[in-house]
Structures are given as C-alpha cells and as structure tokens.
Amino acid sequence: MLRYVISLIFVICVNFISFAQIIGNDTNTEFDADSLRRALDNGPYFTLYKDNYFIVGTSIGPKITKYNSDVKFQVSIAQRLTKSTLPFNTYLYLFYSQKCMWNVFEKSMPMHDFNFNPGIGLAKHLFVKNKYIGKITFMIEHESNGRDGLASRSWNKISLAGNVFIDPNFMVHAKFWIPIVDGQNNKDILDYSGIYQMGLALTSKNKRFGFSLTLVKRRGWNLNYNSIWEINYRIFKKDNQFLFLQYYNGYGECLLDYNQFHSRLRMGLVIKPKFFSEY
To answer: Between β-strands 131-144 and 209-217, what pairing exists: parallel, antiparallel or unpaired?
Structure first.
C-alpha cells in the first residue's frame, strides 16, 4: 500500500510540473479574436481543464481527529481534437477530471473515494468588439466512483457551461445540466449534488492573488446551496503554482458520501489553467 501511495504522489507531482511548463504564465485576457484563434490552433492540444490541486485539512466545528481530517486532490485535463474549423468556430474537446479523498491520517492510509469524470463537448470562445470575453461549452459527461455493490455511485449530465469576463480581473460563471441518474444507490443525488451552479472569480491586477466562490443549488425551492470558497496566491511571479485555501460547506463533495454534510477547510498547492479555471 505504501509503495502504491508513493508512486501515486510521484505521478501527480510529475504531472503538475509538466502542466506548469505547458500552460505558461500569461493570464492576460485582452486578446483580439484572430490572434487568440491562431494561438489556440497552433498551441498545445493537451492542456489543463479545471484546477489541479493537492490540499490537506480537517472538518470545521468538531474536535480534530484522524477520522475527520484528510487529503483531497484533483487532476483535470483537456484534449482538443479539432481546430477552429467546425461550424461557428467551435472546438471539439475531450475532458477528464479525477478527484480523490484520501484518509492519510488513518492506519494504512486508505483511499476513501475516487471520482472519475470524463466528458466530450464543443467549446466556443466569445468575443465582443474583437476582444476575448470568455467561453461557452456544451458537453456530455459521466461521473462515477468506479465501485460496485452498495458503494457504487454514478450519474450523467448533458451540460451547458459559460465563463464570462466582466473585466480582465472579474469573471462570472454558470453551469446548467440535464441529469440522467443511472446509479441504483444514488437516485436522490439531485437533492444533494445539485441541479445547477453559479459563481464568480476575482483576480488582482498583478495576477498574484485570486478569490472564487461557487454555489451549487440543491434540488428544491429553498435557498439550499453547497458553497465552495477558494483563495489562491501565486508563490513566485513567473511561476504558475499557487498557495491554495479551499473551504467546502455542504453536501456532494464526493460521490460515496454525497448525502452527508461536510464543512471542511483545506490548504495546499494548486496549478491553474492559462486563461481561467473551469468550475
């Protein structure tokens, strides 16, 4: 088990370093349409998708123990399959995200839950007066924890997501989905993992500091949201590695415990995509 864990950490670190070299450090969003399309068509087909992070923390409220403290990490990538030659200058992408909850403080350090989230979709970059303002993505995605029996969890989504820059340092985002719940043990997942999400992201002018808030609406007419608060600080000016603080409050943090409430604060490192993070 220990050898497996060490190998897993090594693979994650190597991928993090490779990702940082691929995506560079330029996060300026003020590109004209033609130059951005050229950059996308000529740039790497393999890129980051969501944030890639490795964080450790514990529950807020109860006494801290090895049973309510853990490590959470996420690896998320995208593979562009086409250039901007599809109708309406769209791109076809493959997406893949993997999230893990790891009980490192317990004996033998067991992996609590793995969540696998592959998808395929069309993305279109948005321009106003020849300036880049964001992206919309239509995708079909699957999410499951790869387990069988009573621990099995899975569902599918047909999703429409949008990221729009109000100005170069302020972005709003939203994602709506049509759920297809096929997991026999999570028929009520919409009551906990939600029916849509929305949020905002702020970045300082020097790109060193960032803040984001994501709200996931659970099913029902009440104001029942899962909330994800994140703060990041760029360690070195020319690097793309950030100190990262995440506070998760609500349900659905992982599939195995989707119907259990969690209020957890974690910190660690994050590597972010070049233009903006997907949520």
So the answer is: unpaired
Where are the strands (E) in the chain, listed by range?
A: 46-48, 52-59, 69-80, 91-102, 111-128, 131-144, 154-167, 170-180, 196-203, 209-217, 225-234, 241-250, 262-271
Cα within 13 Å of Cα(262), Cβ side: 28
Q: What is the residue-wise DSSP string for 129-173?
A: TTEEEEEEEEEEEEEE----GGG--EEEEEEEEEEEEEETTEEEE
Neighbouring-strand partners of residue 55: 72, 268
Tens digits of residue pLDDT in 16-60: 333 333 333 343 445 567 787 788 888 889 999 999 999 999 999
- C-alpha triplet 125, 126, 127: angle, nearest 5°: 130
The pLDDT value given to residue 14: 38
Angle at CA of residue 98, ends 112 and 149, nearest 5° = 50
What span, in angstroms and rounded, lies between the C-alpha atoms of 189 and 277?
25
Q: From CA 117, how far away is CA 95, in angstroms rounded?
A: 8
Give pLDDT, residue 175: 98
Q: What is the mean pLDDT of the segment spanning 224-249? A: 95
User: How many CB atoms are located within 10 Å of the residue 42 CB?
Assistant: 8
Q: Please answer whether residues 93 and 82 qualify as being in contact, where contact means their C-beta atoms are separated by less than 8 angstroms.
A: no
Q: How many CB atoms lie within 10 A of CB 48?
A: 23
Tens digits of residue pLDDT in 158-169: 999 999 999 999
pTM score over 0.90: no
What are 209-236's pLDDT values in tens digits? 999 999 999 999 999 999 999 999 999 9
Query: How would you class 63 by CB atoms within 10 Å of its CB: exposed for 0-12, middle for 13-18, buried for 19 or more?
Result: exposed
Tell me which H or E stretch contains 33. helix 33-42
Report the largest interatomic distance among the alpha carbons of the chain, rounded to a whole angstrom: 58
